[in-house]
Automatic annotation (TrEMBL):
Annotated MOSC domain residues: 174-339
Lineage: Eukaryota, Sar, Stramenopiles, Ochrophyta, Bolidophyceae
Protein name per its UniProtKB record: MOSC domain-containing protein
Domain of life: Eukaryota
Family annotation (InterPro entries): MoCF_Sase_C, MOCOS_middle, Pyrv_Knase-like_insert_dom_sf
Length: 354
């Protein structure tokens, strides 16, 4: 069978070359040889992925928890962004709005702890006092806007007093998220998602994935000290190997979908970065150099509309992803495969993605 294929390929190429002017035959032969070498290298060294670290953020914009495994469900990462910090808006004393590190970087010093029964407690910085986040399922529920969508919440009793202890000039409360964000209602990015694609209190997709190679590429443009991966608050950090990924400075731009262990994941779009990425998570302060955002603005604007980018977006680092098919458990050390491309992402519903 292989002899037949090679004979057919040889016959086809011979036919093509026979109709080409003599002056172009050698350049075409060189091109064909290079393509053959590239395909051979790709087959000999197929692209693979390796899970380097996993992270869950029980409270939105609080510190993350590094874990050995995480569970992906139809609603996203289990226990991720299940709580939010709220405050009363100045123009609406009866309403609520979400507070993040964009407004107050010291939220990074809130240290959640996830217990075996999925309950959450929280401390602040080095203060040993721990507050349990318990809520009454029958308590009043209300909607809060979050990036052009709404989440349904209820206030955790006693959380206002706990936060006042550490943020004396603020009137913060912690709320439990009963109904997460429906990304298909996002007026800007709805075409990147499939119907009924919900999650917790995330800014966009169910899952944020970053690449170790991309961080190294970024840090090569930043003077010391280097930026940590924690600045980007990913759920999954992966490294890659193989011939094809080695050609890419920014794998973020080319990954279309992936499988980690038995879990299939769809890549929706780039994660567009804002001032939150400049928060030094260990100390709860903005980086005075405005890194990595300053460097990202120089090297990561995709102004030609590739890869689902759109006018007015901030620079991208990492990718927003969603579960594809059945859920499952992803563990540190799990291997995986990716599907790569050089075409525009998004519009999944228009191309039948699943």
């Amino acid at each position: 069978m292989s002899d037949f294929l090679y004979t057919g390929l040889y016959t086809t190429l011979s036919s093509v070359l026979s109709s080409v002017p003599v002056t172009l035959i050698i350049p075409l032969q060189v091109i064909i040889l290079l393509i053959t070498i590239l395909i051979t290298l790709h087959l000999l060294f197929p692209p693979t992925l390796l899970v380097e670290s996993l992270h869950i953020y029980p409270i939105k914009s609080a510190a993350g928890i590094q874990v050995d495994s995480l569970t992906l469900t139809s609603k996203g990462v289990k226990n991720d962004r299940q709580y939010v910090v709220l405050q009363r808006p100045k123009d609406d004393p009866n309403g609520w709005e979400v507070v993040t590190q964009r407004e107050n970087p010291r939220l990074a010093l809130l240290q959640p702890k996830l217990h075996e029964d999925d309950s959450v407690s929280v401390t602040y910085s080095s203060d040993p006092f721990s507050f349990d986040l318990t809520f009454n399922p029958s308590s009043e529920k209300f909607k809060v806007e979050l990036f052009r969508c709404f989440i349904t919440c209820s206030i955790v009793p006693g959380s206002s007093s706990f936060l006042l202890r550490h943020f004396p000039s603020k009137s913060y409360s912690i709320a439990y998220v009963h109904v997460g964000r429906d990304s298909t209602l996002d007026s800007k990015w709805s075409d990147c998602y499939l119907p009924s694609e919900s999650s917790g209190a995330v800014d966009g997709s169910q899952l944020l994935l970053t690449f170790t190679r991309s961080l190294s590429t970024l840090n090569s443009s930043i003077s010391s000290p280097a930026v940590k991966m924690s600045n980007f608050r990913p759920n999954v950090v992966v490294s890659s190997s193989g011939f094809l990924p080695s050609l890419m400075k920014w794998e973020d731009d080319h990954l279309r979908s992936l499988s980690l262990s038995l879990v299939k994941i769809r890549v929706n779009k780039l994660c567009h970065r804002c001032v939150l990425s400049t928060v030094i998570q260990d100390v709860g302060e903005f980086d005075r150099r405005l890194e990595p955002l300053k460097s990202l603005r120089k090297i990561r604007y995709l102004k030609d509309g590739r890869f689902g980018d759109r006018p007015g977006n901030s620079p991208g680092f990492g990718v927003n992803c969603s579960l594809r098919g059945e859920g499952g458990v992803v563990k540190v050390g799990d291997g995986g495969r990716g599907e790569w491309g050089w075409t525009k992402r998004c519009n999944w519903r228009n191309v039948g993605g699943n």
